[in-house]
Amino acid sequence: MAFTGFPAAGIDLLQLNRLQNSREFYESHKEEIKRLAIQPFHELIAEMTPAMLEIDPLFVVTPSRMVSRVRRDTRYTKDKTLYRANMWMFFRRPRREHESVPCYYFEIHPEFWGFGCWGAWGKGEMEALREMILKEDKLFLEAYEAVRACPQVRLDGELYKRPKFPDAKPAYQTWLNRKEIGVDFRETNDFSPVLDGSFVGPMVDTMRRLAPLYRFLLAAKERAGAAPREALE
Prior knowledge:
By secondary structure, this protein is of the alpha+beta class. It has helices at 8-20, 23-55, 125-134, 138-148, 173-176, 192-196, 200-209, 211-226, 229-232, and strands spanning 87-92, 103-109, 112-119, 154-156, 181-187. It has nine helices and five strands, in the order ααβββααβαβαααα. The N and C termini lie far apart (49 Å).
């Protein structure tokens, strides 16, 4: 089926399911959750896939491997709430279990919706990225200009308290001083584009324009993986 937006009833049902926090409630509404909350993600993926494969032909495009689960994994968290009220999907390459890889994402939350492009979580990746920034590598300069050309997104990622390279160019400081890095678009007031599906075109256009950032993050991961272990510690 063609993607026509996310039904408000599906967003509300996810939130109610989380508030109920009950296996019995979930099981009795499971098919409704699939139809109203999960199936629209599958339809969205189908609509986006041709354009996203132009960015990276290696993206996984199997919906069951791309969309978050409604049931939370509570094994390693103090929050034992069984179900989530938000859902998201990733476009990313195949990965090993627990491996982080650069990705594009889209998320719906009861309080906002948004999308972005992220990476540099893995060991040594920010070090490789910073080296490319300091050398003004072509891939970095292209990523830098791509982000500047997309004012609808903002650079994000946890910052160190002190600059790591205080003598570097001021314009690069916000890139150099992150523990991980990415860009986000987030909307907290107007959900109408999500409900009617009109967000898809502008979102995909922005993702295309951010392809240089995605390639920069991929290069950082590849260079970190190729570096000797002692150089990353």
